[in-house]
Amino acid sequence: MLIPSVLLGFIILVSAVLWYRRGISKRRSAGLFHLLDLADDMERLLNLSQKRMQAMQTVVGRVPADIGAIAAAALNSSEKIKAAKRDLLQHRLWIQQHSETASQLEIDNACTALTRSRDRIAEQLEALENAGADLVQATASTEQAAEREPASLRRSEE
Fold it and tell me: What's the whole-model pTM score?
């Protein structure tokens, strides 16, 4: 009677350990997939930001040079986008090199870091798009007003 009870206890213990390890493995896999999805989202956002910045150059080009000089300089500076893409590449390399050995905490920390970066870039992209829309509206209003002014009062183009 003792042997079947011990055997049953052993089977329950082994089953519990296997179930626990399977749960850890699923969580780890889900974390890695989430990390890869975040990296893809980040790359899409960076590419979209770069395109929006290039599109904004056209709008800023319509503004008088003395007014739009700072905006033009900011839009011509692609160093921040390049730096962000290098950081993203570092994250992807880390995933490739450490996906098998990284602890769950390291995976979670990497997800948190990428989420923070992605959210910050998304906010900045939204601000850029809002500023662009405001600039388009202001430029159109200014151009319409300039057309109504006599030529002698118009600002000379340099």
Answer: 0.67
